[in-house]
Amino acid sequence: xxxxxxxxxxxxxxxxxxxxxxxxxxxxxxxxxxxxxxxxxxxxxxxxxxxxxxxxxxxxxxxxxxxxxxxxxxxxxxxxxxxxxxxxxxxxxxxxxxxxxxxxxxxxxxxxxxxxxxxxxxxxxxxxxxxxxxxxxxxxxxxxxxxxxxxxxxxxxxxxxxxxxxxxxxxxxxxxxxxxxxxxxxxxxxxxxxxxxxxxxxxxxxxxxxxxxxxxxxxxxxxxxxxxx
Length: 229
Description:
about 230 residues, alpha+beta, RNA Cap, Translation Initiation Factor Eif4e, seven-stranded antiparallel beta sheet, 6 helices, about 25% strand, initiation factor, TIF_eIF4e-like
């Protein structure tokens, strides 16, 4: 795609070697900085980590792999995120289906090596606020707001999920170290501090932290994955 031409006040001398009185000369350095400024605005803002969008179609099958589908393999910049996000048919997602946004290379399952010892904060969000809540969580996650809070704990935020329920959504933020209490508390504080005031949970019973190993079926999933490997 051709880049738009930038009109710079770079006046060439007239035939008599003079310039008009109201014309100002723009140096090559200034012209270059102007070009860089406008071209920089045209480029998508890159993300520090690349992300993959997944769709988990709910079923009673124990074969979890048959339920997972990649919607977009590589979100590398914020423009791509919005292209995917804004064109996704959110209103048509079935009850109990889940959409995940995870770091590229990490699958949104307990038995993934990155998730084995982890857990997640789970928020039960009223349906009317769920989409806005998930949007803010997604932006905060990909902008490294959560990751920055956990750097000193050597922990990682690996992904986020939104699972559709009848009158609410379960929105989760997954981290790698489920046994690091300080890391878990820092993540909670950062989520609550960074969310818009009208989206913050109104009571402690509306959200909680759960380690993956505390879920029913965790051990079976891990053992099945070990046999497959």
